[in-house]
Amino acid sequence: MIYGTRTSLTAALSVVAIIFVVGTILGILAGYFGGIVDTVIMRFSDMMVSFPGMVLAIAIAGILGASIQNAVLAISMVSWTKYARLARSLVLKIRHRDYVAAAVVTGSKTPYILLRYMLPNALPTLIITGATDIGSMMLELAGLSFLGFGAQAPTPEWGLMLNEGRAYMAAAPWLMIFPGLAIFLVVLVFNLFGDGLRDVLDPRDE
């Protein structure tokens, strides 16, 4: 159980890191440049959102093959849209502010404006979202492993342990109780962690 923490937690953190970086970059670019860039990114995002996320992740994982790495990739491919939309909305709020216009007038380069003004304004809300999403991503990864599309034996992963324990549920219920309890506790901890970060970083308190 303890050894399985490494696989389950690392996979969940990897998913959040990937969707955080990809979604934030695409959202900031869409919000700042607008026009064709915004249209292409947001229409692709709409296309991804139009499918049920877990069903699409199962389909992608099935095509790629069952493994924890492919499960991480599959969930990342369907989950980045939330961060892109959030980053875009945050950038749209400040794109026409006076200090941004002043930076453009004084000759500041686009990369500097994005890194100096757009990214810092979007980060607090995105970090809060990322922290609260760790538990959700762990549940989705465990779900894929439970269905046979994620981690494969002998990889120690909590969702896989739940799947393997089903056959012995009557004779040895602890084979399912403890992996389920581990998932529950970790999800609870990260949800509370996200709430704590919200209290610290909430932009509305500034």
Structure description:
The chain has 206 residues and is mainly α. It has 9 helices and no strands. The chain has helices spanning 2-33, 35-49, 53-64, 68-79, 81-94, 98-105, 110-147, 158-165, 174-201. It is elongated, with a radius of gyration of 20 Å.
Q: What does the secondary structure layout of this molecule look like, with pairings?
A:
Layout: H1 2-33, H2 35-49, H3 53-64, H4 68-79, H5 81-94, H6 98-105, H7 110-147, H8 158-165, H9 174-201
Outline:
The chain is an all-alpha fold and 206 residues long.
Which structural category do the helix and sheet elements fall into?
mainly alpha
Strand percentage lies at: under 5%
Fraction of residues in H or I helices: over 70%
Overall shape: it is elongated
The N- to C-terminal Cα distance equals 42 Å
State the oligomer: single chain
Question: What would the average pLDDT be, to the nearest integer?
Answer: 88
* Radius of gyration (Å): 20 Å
Which series of helices and strands comes N to C? HHHHHHHHH
Keywords:
206 residues, mainly alpha
